[in-house]
Amino acid sequence: MHLKLGSIPVLIVSSSEVASEILKTHDLAFCSRPSSPVLMKFSYGGSDIAFSKYGENWRQMRRLGMLEIFSMKRVKSFRRGREEEVHILTQNIRRRSSQGEAVNLSEMFLCMSNNITCREVFGKRFSNDGECNRSEHHDLVLEVIELMGGFSLGDFFPYLQNLLNVITGFKVKLERNFKGMDELFEREIEGHCLSLSDDPGHEEDFLDVLLKLQKDSNLGFSLKRDHIKGILMDIFLGGTDTSASILEWAMSELMRHPKVMKKAQDEVRGVLGKKGKVEESDLQQLQYLKLLINETLRLHCIVPLLVPRESMEECKVNGYIIPKKTRVYVNAWAIGRDPKLWEDPEVFLPERFDGSAINYKGQHFEFIPFSSGRRMCPGIQLGIAAVEIALANMLYHFDWEAPLGTCHQGIDMTETFGLVLHKKSPLLLIAKPTKVEV
Ligand code: HEM
After folding, report:
1. Burial class for 374, CB neighbours closer than 10 Å (0-12, 13-18, 19+)
2. What ipTM, to 2 d.p.?
3. Is the pLDDT of residue 31 over 90?
4. Residues contacting 322, CB < 8 A, separation 6+
5. Could you give the residue ranges of the DSSP H alpha helices within 97-195?
6. What mean pLDDT do residues 118-136 have?
7. How many beta carbons lie within 10 A of that of residue 380, not counting itself?
8. Cα–Cα 20 to 30 A to 102, which of 183, 195, 359, 415?
9. Which residues contact 112 (CB under 8 A, 6 or more apart)?
10. Which metal ions or organic cofactors does this protein require, according to UniProt (predicted)?
11. Secondary structure of residue 423 in the 3-state scheme
12. Of all atoms in ligand 1, which is nearest to the CA of residue 387?
């Protein structure tokens, strides 16, 4: 679908064939990003990976990210942090549900994934010790995510941009949130500079890594403070509510499908027996868990329109001429539910992935929750690692019930609009601890 929103030409792609043309055949022509005041502000003038225009800066940052931040070695190095946060989550659910009250899983997943991200980035958590609760830092990050996903009128009327953003109050919010994040980054950078350690036993966080690279004379380019802050911002924006949202939708679907819930619980409890907790080394044995995460991502593509691209040159797609500087949204949500591609697409059926070659690694255009091509999400492993360990522990430690007055089928599945797809109403469930501890 080709539209003009304000003065900006926009292409919305809802078929897997055209998505493949955009993200594979013509990947280079479509691998830039549109700019807007919000994106420019939060990417430190395009110094980051996610929102910088295609060019030398993006190539350098992306290469550095792939080698130093998103590598499998680095993902594994954060294993302990993820396991500890999941343990705290489990303990908190156990404590809060001891009175038989429902727990707000949406909120707790968000706090847990925020704490995981914060440990990866700064080597510490946001919540109070032993708690899985909100802090002012959580609120700040979540407000920024909301702003980024929001529809700023000014983006589509560049000539009226300043005026519109002032009238709608957008500018004030933008400045306040940016200042909050920037102050947080500055404080942490100063703190890390004072305590940079060469001790081999020291667990490096992302900020340690970036500050070391800044001093590396073999890097081949100069890594400035804005580059570092831009990358930190990407990790907070990319890493926080994406994993939480997958967990929220997965648990909601499991509640609506008791047979799937039982099969998943039987698997994890059968494999782990009375071990007492699920660790990351156990995950490779949990094949059904992986199928149900795939199915959750298909039915609830959590970045529904992916991240907008911008064409760098005029290009012919599916027989149509797409002008230079067209903004492109790929509707991966619609593709995941396309009846031409999926049998009974509205049905939650993890078994459809059993024995199937289709995966989310960007080669199968009927299933592209992480996109594809040069700008495909580099954080897949980090995100999925957090989802798998948290979900496996939820299935292992608890039986789940809907609060009184709600039947399982009655779980509200209404979605909210934004960069990341959340449930409109929080997921409240009653947790019944199981006797899996030794
Ligand atoms: C777990 C769920 C996640 C999903 C579903 C997801 C999805 C996406 C999508 C759809 C894009 C747009 C790609 C494109 O434009 O073609 C993207 C980009 C990106 N994601 Fe993720 N993401 C997730 C987790 C993460 C995590 C945990 C991080 C970092 C810690 C991260 C960092 C990034 C970055 C830096 C980009 C920009 C890549 C570029 O422009 O070159 N993501 N992600």
Report:
1. middle
2. 0.99
3. yes
4. 2, 11, 311, 314, 315, 316, 328
5. 105-122, 136-149, 153-156, 161-167, 170-195
6. 89
7. 17
8. 415
9. 85, 86, 88, 89, 132, 244, 390
10. heme
11. strand
12. 1
Q: Compute CA 135 distance to the chain's CA centroid, rounded to the nearest angstrom.
A: 20
Ligand 1 site, CB within 6 A? 49-50, 62, 234-235, 238-239, 242-243, 302-303, 306-307, 309, 369-371, 375-379, 382-383
Q: For residue 438, give both structure tokens.
A: 């030794």
When pLDDT is averaged across residues 164-174 and rounded to a whole number, the result is 69
Please tell me the distance from the alpha carbon of residue 280 to that of residue 85, in angstroms, as a whole number.
13
Task: Work out the angle at residue 148's Cα, subtended by the Cα atoms of residues 144 and 152, and round it to the nearest 5 degrees.
Answer: 120
Average pLDDT over residues 34-51: 89
SS (H, E, C) 169-228: CHHHHHHHHHHHHHHHHHHHHHHHHHHCCCCCCCCCCHHHHHHHHHCCCCCCCCCCHHHH
SS3 344: coil
Ligand 1: atom nearest CA of 382 is 27
377 labelled binding-site residue: yes
CA 331-369-117 angle, to 5 degrees, is 125
Model confidence pLDDT, tens digit, residues 264-301: 999 999 999 999 999 999 999 999 999 999 999 999 99
Ligand 1 centroid – CA 47 distance (Å): 16
Condensed to tens digits (0 to 9), the pLDDT of residues 407-417 reads 666 788 898 87
Q: How far is it, in rounded angstroms, from Cα 410 to Cα 66?
A: 43
Q: Which residues contact 43 (CB under 8 A, 6 or more apart)?
A: 50, 51, 52, 230, 233, 234
State the average pLDDT over residues 420-430: 90
Strand partners, 320: 317
CA–CA dist 285, 289 (Å, integer):
9
Counting ligand 1 atoms within 8 A of each CB, the residue from 306, 377, 381 with the most, and so the one to mutate, is 377
The pair phi, psi for residue 144, each rounded to 5°, is -65, -45
How far apart CA 165 and CA 411 sit, in angstroms, is 37
| pTM beyond cutoff 0.90 | yes
Which protein residue's CA is at the shortest distance from atom 13 of ligand 1? 376
CA 70 to each of CA 65, 77, 193, 326, 328: distance values in angstroms, whole numbers, following the listed order? 6, 11, 22, 30, 26
Structure tokens at 403: 């609060």
Q: Report which residue type is found at 171.
A: K
Between the two ends of the chain, the Cα-to-Cα distance in Å is: 58
